[in-house]
Structure formats: structure tokens, C-alpha cells
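Changelog note: in this version the structure field was regenerated for every chain. One regenerated record is shown below for reference.
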Amino acid sequence: MMVIYKITYPNGKIYVGQDRTDSINYFGSASSNLIAKDFTREQRRGFTIRKELLWESETATRAEVTAKEIEFILALSSNNPAIGYNLWPKPRDHHPPAATRHAAHRGG
């Protein structure tokens, strides 16, 4: 089973990731240094996070799982530093997606 999950930290910020093994103990690869900056030493002594499964599939390809992960990252804006800890994909500053830019150059 492959899943897309959302981790919610005590400060309300989120991280969206994928797990192709559906491990109950996997909490993603968010940057520990980035997260640590948001919490005092005292806050780190008692720390609860929540993991929610947003989507799951037994048949999706790796490419489909990655596309779904990106879809959730963008929909939830977890790549916006004020909202979440996803560093990828980089937030777009009003630039059209690459496919749109390429179509425009081809006259499509």
C-alpha cells in the first residue's frame, strides 16, 4: 500500500509526504533543523505530532504517487514556509507551470 500523509506539528505547520511501504512508524524526511527553529528547548521536551493519511493506493506507480504528493503539497500550501515544512516543490511566484510555459513557446 502506498500512501500520502500529512504530519501536523504542535505549531500548526504541516508536512506532506509519501510512503510506498505504509509504515506506521515513518514520519517523513522533513528538515529537522528547519522544524527545530520553530520550537524552544522547553517545547521540545513534550512534543506531539499527528499523522493523517490523505490518500492511499495499492496499484499506483511511483510516478503517480509522486504526482499525488505534489498535488497535496500545492493544494495545502505546505511548501509555503508560513504554513509548512515542505521545501519542494519551491513555491511559485506567479509563474505558470512549466508545461504551460512550453506550450506558449510552441504556440499552443
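Spot check on this record: The first helix runs from residue 32 to 36. The helical segments are 32-36, 41-45, 62-76, 98-105.
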